[in-house]
Amino acid sequence: MKRWGLAMVVVLGVVLTACSDKKEQAASAYKPTLDVIVTVNGTSATVEVKTDMKISKDHLGMQRMEGQGHIHMYMDDGEKTVVSDPTVVFGDLKQGKHQVKVSLHNNDHTPYDVNKSVNFEIK
Question: Does the predicted model carry a pTM greater than 0.85?
Answer without folding.
Answer: no
